[in-house]
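Class prep. Write one:
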Amino acid sequence: MIDKSLYVAMTGASASLRAQASVAQNLANADTVGFQQQLVATKAMPITGEGLASRVNTAPVMAGVSAAPGQLINTGNDLDVALHQDRWLAVQAPDGSTAYTRAGDLKLTANGLLTTAGGLPVLDAGGAPLSIPPYQTMSIASDGTISIVPQGQPASTITESGRLQVVAARTADLVRGDDGLMRAKPGAEAPPQAAGPALTPGAVEGSNVEATSMLVSMIQYARQFEMQVRVLQSGDENARSGNSLLSSK
């Protein structure tokens, strides 16, 4: 039974370590634009078969991401956009697929390609990477429409350069990939284009991570891990004592 108790304690320690890793990731992104906190939980897994019915393993569970809004930060930057609740900016992921993000601190490459701060191409309403020709002034409307005054043209010459693909989807209806981007759940249809006002121009949404609560969680998981390691040590000591008694007979 000692080896079984060691295994049960080991699953608890492993779950605590994984939870600590998720909390550490949240803390590391407390200042990342548009970042949404990873939710962590543990699940009790009763052990069937030979042994006491009180034996329960612990399994880590990724419970999705927090849908709580982050702080609205006014920047005045023409390229910055803060997405409204349940609104997502469509981007082209490194593998070529369509993914979604709330990071609205956008950039323009030397060739006029609109990208995220991380270099991912931003998609237009038609699903193609969005390029903006040389301009004198530019503005992004609340529905994602981009208007510019072309370079060398009078201020009265305003033309529409494209429209951001902003989709409507609940956070719970999307899943986060290993690359940090959100995608539609397997087998689900792509989210539809959002109608009406979908963003606030000249601002970005800050991370929704509460650093204080994450630090408290980190301490709690550290204490849990310490207790589970003590159980492992106690089990090992009991096994040594048992072996010593058997060898003395």
In short: Residues 211-248 form the longest helix (38 residues). The mean pLDDT is 87. The longest strand covers residues 56-65. The chain has two domains: 2-67+209-248, 72-205.
